[in-house]
Amino acid sequence: MAKEYRLLLSYTEREDSHTIEAYESLGGYQGLRKALEMEPDEIIEEVMKSGLKGRGGAAFPTGKKWSFIPKDHPGPKYVVDNADEGEPGTFKDRELLYRAPHLVLEGMIIAGRAIGAREGYMYLRYEYLWIFPRIKRAIREAYQKGYLGKNILGSRFDFDVYVYLGAGAYIAGYAVSTLESLEGKRALPRLKPPRTSQVGLYGMPTAVNNVETHATVPIILSKGADWYARLGTPESRGTRLFSISGAVKRPGVYEFELGSLTLREFIYEVAGVDEGTELLGVFPGGLSSEILTPDELDVPMTHEDLEKVGSTLGSGAIIVLDRSQKALSILRRSIEFFSYESCGKCTPCRDGTNWMTRILVQAEKRGYATAEDIALLREITRMMRGRNFCPLGDSAEFVARTFLDKYEDELTRKPVAA
Ligand SMILES: Cc1cc2nc3c(=O)[nH]c(=O)nc-3n(C[C@H](O)[C@H](O)[C@H](O)COP(=O)(O)O)c2cc1C
After folding, report:
1. What is the CA radius of gyration of the chain?
2. Could you tell me the fold of the domain covering 9-229?
3. Which residue, among 111, 288, 82, has the nearest Cα to 181 in the 3D structure?
């Protein structure tokens, strides 16, 4: 039986784990104390050495991202904590925000120290309004204890944290759109380059990181990069939080050392599947990751192994689908989601997702997709590929294309007459 490795989740287990007393009793803010004794470059070096990759979806190396922030920049720099958690199936960050807000805050403060920022913004998903009081409390406690504010622990380092309630849109979680939204505008994507590390919030260098990424940083600092880097595989270091939902007996948030189990072991041995349930497929890293068929699940849960089968660990969201729903209905709902969430800025995404949705709604009413439907859907994905302004449209096209490749027979199968 695959074993959980509760590194971050060990900070979430007590009833009062959100309080500063509980957090400090578990060694909280030791990472910050260490960071304050180090030079900013040394902190970045330590995070690089740990091999930590971003947990928001793109898996970009965190230390490397921080190293891109210009050191001699004359104006302010910013830390942004991406707490928008919008990828369907993802609900791991809320566990940390609700039960261990100090772990996230400590990570943000260390990030600020590393890149030379004095302000951090948490972009909190509006649907997590119910968590907001706990975060406010944690921020208040951190100020009272001298972990935030002026001259933190006598180090002459100043850092303030602000919370901004999100705009309720999937696209608002895309880092460049997050920044637009933080500036009070509609969360439309900005053209990249320039990178946010060069031109970010209010045009200033900004390090945007996911909640879980920030929450991992204090542990790396307090336990040491060498210790952390021994967990996982050379390409996928450390542990990761996974949220699993759908056709499993024990949905929830789990934490594993990367590579310590396969997707099939996670689904069948840990989360459990009812006897007699036949799986249709699994999204291993959120809706935007390539769906895997039931015979593709013997893949170790690492970045490199998921990549080998054409998919990704993405945001760590495993959506398990059984045959109680038809492939056609799942595809329609997925594409309708992208269409609803398309910001409308570019034509391929706005019109492509809408057009595909209309075809799929008709097909679903009929009970199956015709050969013409499939040909037209393929043509639309060809038209969209590589032409979208941002990854939202790319994901919509990719999800449709891989579904057509893997499930064409099911999509076109006529229902048996009663
Ligand atoms: C459409 C879209 C939605 C996204 N939503 C989120 C989100 O809700 N939370 C998140 O951390 N990253 C999200 N991302 C990824 C961010 O753009 C960015 O890569 C991430 O916040 C960087 O942090 P990390 O390096 O720590 O992973 C999204 C990306 C796209 C394209």
Report:
1. 22
2. Rossmann fold (3.40.50)
3. 82
pLDDT tier at 1, thresholds 50, 70, 90: low
Q: How many CB atoms within 10 Å of residue 193?
A: 8
How much distance in Å is there from the Cα of 209 to the middle of ligand 1? Answer: 8
- Tell me 313's DSSP state: -
Asked if the 239-312 domain carries CATH number 1.10.3370.10, the reply is no
Cβ(87) – ligand 1 distance below 6 Å: yes
Q: To test ligand 1's pocket by mutation, which of 165, 210, 337, 390 has the most ligand atoms within 8 angstroms of CB?
A: 210
Task: Please report how the helices 30-37 and 101-115 are oriented relative to each other, as an axis angle in degrees rounded to 10.
Answer: 10
Choose among 91, 88, 94: nearest CA to 288.
88
**Cα 154 to ligand 1 centre (Å):** 34
Give tens-digit pLDDT for 149-185.
Answer: 999 999 999 999 999 999 889 999 999 999 999 999 9
Distance 128 CA to ligand 1 centre (A): 17
> Is 327-412 a domain of CATH 1.10.760.10?
no
For atom 9 of ligand 1, the residue with the nearest CA is: 85
Amino acid at 188: L
Q: For ligand 1, say whether the CB of 197 is within 6 Å of any of its atoms.
A: no
User: How many Å apart are CA 62 and CA 50, to the nearest integer?
Assistant: 9
227 backbone dihedrals φ, ψ, rounded to 5°: -60, -45
Residue 302, helix vs strand vs coil = coil
Question: Is the Cβ–Cβ distance between 241 and 95 less than 8 Å?
Answer: yes
Domain boundaries defined on the chain: 9-229, 239-312, 327-412
The first and second tokens of residue 370, run together, are 């015709």
